[in-house]
Amino acid sequence: MKADKMKAKLLIVAVILIGVGVAACKKDQFTTKPQIKLKSVNTDRVSQNQVLNIVLDVTDKEGDIQDTLFMERVRYSCEPSNEITKYKIADFPSQGSLKAEIDITFYNGLDNPNYNAFISNFCASVSGEKTDSGYYKIWVQDRARNVSDTVKTGIIVIE
C-alpha cells in the first residue's frame, strides 16, 4: 500500500514537472525582446528587373513591433562597404503576444518608379560586368525600444 502511494506521489510530481517544462517552452516563444528568424530568401542571384524577396518570422510578447526594421548591407565587391537602412514597420492593431511574417521585397530595375537604391549602387567588376555581392543583416526594434537579435542572409549576387 505504501509503495502504491509513493508511486502515485512520484507520478504527480512527474506530471507537474512535465507541465512546468511545457509551459516554460511555450512561454519562451514570446519574449519582451522581439525574436526573428529568417524564413526564406527567394534567390541568391538577382538579375536586372528581378525581385529579391526576404521573408522573416517575428514574435513579440507585447505585440508592439510596429517601429523599425533595420537592414545592413555588407558588400564584398569592389570597395567593401556596409550600409544600414531603416524602414518603418507599418502600424497595425495588436493585442498581446504576436506572431507575424515580415515580407521584404526589392525590385532590381531602373524602370520601376519606386526604384530602391539600397539594392542597386553597383560597381564595375574587372570583366566590365556590373555585379555586386554580399549579404544582409536584419533586425527589428519594437515601440519600447527592445531590439531583436540579428539574422543574416546567405551571399546574394546582384547583377
Can you describe this structure?
This is DUF4625 domain-containing protein. The structure is a single chain. With 159 residues, the chain is α+β, with helices and mostly antiparallel strands. It folds into 2 domains: 1-29; 31-158, Immunoglobulin-like, CATH 2.60.40. The chain contains 1 helix and 10 strands. The strands form 2 sheets. Strands 2, 4, 5, 7, 8, 9 and 10 form a 7-stranded mixed beta sheet that branches. It has a 3-stranded antiparallel beta sheet with strand order 1-3-6, with no helix packed on it. The protein is elongated, with a radius of gyration of 23 Å. The N and C termini lie far apart (78 Å). The model is unreliable at 2-7 and 19-24 (pLDDT under 50).
Quick gist of this model?
18% of the residues lie in helices and 41% in strands.
Write the layout of secondary structure elements.
Blueprint: H1 2-29, E1 35-41, E2 45-46, E3 50-60, E4 68-75, E5 82-88, E6 98-108, E7 123-124, E8 130-141, E9 151-152, E10 156-158
Any idea how many domains? 2
In helices, the fraction of residues equals 10-25%
Largest sheet: 7 strands, mixed
CATH topology of the largest domain: Immunoglobulin-like
End-to-end gap: 78 Å
- The coarse silhouette is elongated
User: How many helices?
Assistant: 1
Q: What structural category do the secondary elements indicate?
A: alpha+beta
Radius of gyration: 23 Å
Index terms:
seven-stranded mixed beta sheet, single chain, alpha+beta, Immunoglobulin-like, 2 domains, three-stranded antiparallel beta sheet, 159 residues
